[in-house]
Amino acid sequence: MRFDRDFTHWPIGLHRVAEDVYAYVQGNGPYGNAGFSNAGFVVGPEYVVVIDTLGTNSMHDGFIDAIRSVTDKPVGLVIITHHHVDHVLGTHRFMPARVICHRQCRAHIAAGRDTMVQRWRSMRPLLAPDLDDIPVVVPDITFEERISIHLGERELVVFHPGLAHTDGDAAVILPGDGVLFTGDLFFNRVCPAAFQGSVKGWIAAVENLLQLDTKVIVPGHGPVADRTALAEMLRYLHLIQSGSEQAYAEGLTPEEAFARMEIGAFREWFDTEHRLLQDIQRVYESLGQAS
Predict the structure, then answer these.
(1) pTM, two decimal places
(2) Which of 96, 137, 157, 281 could be stapled to 91 by a disulfide with Cβ–Cβ 3.0 to 4.6 Å?
(3) Is residue 268 part of a domain?
């Protein structure tokens, strides 16, 4: 497939990325891209596998409409790539499907289920009217390193890359199709957010993702892409890690490092104005823990 290269706009909605394999891509919202994540689904012989379930009620409605435009088969399995609200709050709409995620992801959802929606209301007041009557579903199946799902002759491999965006990330690869769903291991044209993870660990995870045989990569945020765009995000992570290490060694504060850090065109990515400092602070925290 062809990939749109316009920086500020990208095709949204439903994208067929392989036979019976679809990405559902959202654009930007009132706060930039924050909260406007992507999802996907795979149509099997008997049921549909959904990958992430989005955040607000209207987002859930749009995603379900997109699925129903392709198939009337029931959703039998939901895969959650990590615990952040914009990827999990639609899970109740697919019950009684089974729900699978990494063990740490489930732990975070279980611990925060009573406060997740209210916390997001307070953080994103413009989205608050779209968050009514959302029960949080705790996944019922977990894995540690990887698990395979078989839909007829098609295999989906769900795997944990280690501490990266969070400590409970999962990616989904369809080896026979060359399609990779990364969740928030990949932000395309949107600044990565490392506030609950590790920039250094994220670098290692992306380097491993780039070793996979992929043709199409569906990011957690931003447009459908290929390996070139994933490698570009890796370059950002390297700049943040090395620049923060140098500033830390010189005794600069994170704010001083933020002011002087040279990241070129990455400053034009969506949400960089507030996430860059968070990413630098995360590197500083890891350096302080190591000293």
Answers:
(1) 0.95
(2) 137
(3) no
